[in-house]
Structure formats: C-alpha cells, structure tokens
C-alpha cells in the first residue's frame, strides 16, 4: 500500500477546497440560489482554505496544513450544525435563517439529491484529514 506524501495530501485538500468554492459560486451566481445564513458562514471558512492551501503549495510550505486543519474544523462545526437543522435534530426555533430568506431545511438545500450541508461537511472533513496527513510527513 502506498503512502500519501504530504505534498500530495495538501494538493488533494486544495483541489477539494477550490472545487467547493467554485461550486458554491456556481450555485449562487449562475443558478441564482441565495445562500442561507449558515451557508455564508461555511463559505467564510471554505474560501480562505482555497487561498491558504493554494499559496502553501505554491510556496512549498510543508506546515501550511495546520491552517487547513484549523479552518476545516471551524467549517465542519458550522456544517455539522447546519446538517442537524436539515435533518431535524435541532429544533426549528433555533434556526438562524430568516422567514423572508432561504431556509436551512427546504428542498432548495439539495443538489443532485444530496443535501448541501452534507456535501459541505464531507468536504471539510476530507480537507481537515488531508491537511493533517500533510503534517505527518517528517519536516526537514
């Protein structure tokens, strides 16, 4: 079994962050689906991930993964809360979305039949894991 190198893990984390950033921009700007409050908070973690991880790769900074882990944990926490709202584990009265805006529990939170909060949670989890793996390689 081949081990994933730190640079490869970081590259995969950046690809996920960059693709996720482009995807939410496409959903919002091209498809016209306004993000809910929690989606905005998740974007606040995802967009910097694409930039920070990309710059870390460009500059060949082997320790940039620690920033990836920190940002991914923050984004995953928001996505986890969002998923709890979506599946009904968190009471709707705590829901941060406005009555006049998009809802965290409507069908507009589905993309290809998959809830957007679940996609975000998986993306943040993978980015965090890959960022952590990039730190496991012996630093020289």
UniProtKB/TrEMBL annotation:
Keywords: Chaperone, Disulfide bond, Electron transport, Membrane, Oxidoreductase, Redox-active center, Transmembrane, Transmembrane helix, Transport. GO terms for cellular component: membrane. It comes from the Bacteria. Pfam families: DsbB. The chain crosses the membrane at residues 12-34, 40-59, 71-90, 110-135. One of its GO terms (biological process) is protein folding. Its main location: membrane. It is found in: Membrane. GO terms for molecular function: protein-disulfide reductase activity. It is a multi-pass membrane protein. Belongs to the DsbB family. BdbC subfamily. This is Disulfide bond formation protein B. The lineage of its organism: Bacteria, Pseudomonadati, Pseudomonadota, Alphaproteobacteria, Rhodobacterales.
């Amino acid at each position: 079994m081949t081990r994933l190198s730190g640079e490869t893990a970081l590259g995969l984390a950046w690809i996920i962050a960059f693709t996720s950033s482009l995807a939410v921009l496409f959903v919002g700007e091209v498809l016209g689906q306004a993000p809910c409050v929690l989606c905005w908070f998740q974007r606040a973690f995802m967009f910097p991930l694409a930039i920070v991880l990309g710059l870390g790769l460009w500059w060949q900074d082997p320790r940039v993964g620690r920033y990836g882990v920190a940002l991914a944990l923050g984004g995953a926490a928001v996505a986890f809360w969002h998923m709890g709202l979506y599946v009904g584990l968190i009471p709707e009265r705590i829901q941060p979305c406005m009555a006049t805006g998009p809802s965290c529990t409507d069908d507009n939170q589905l993309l290809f039949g998959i809830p957007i909060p679940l996609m975000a949670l998986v993306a943040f989890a993978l980015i965090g894991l890959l960022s952590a793996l990039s730190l496991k390689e012996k630093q020289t």
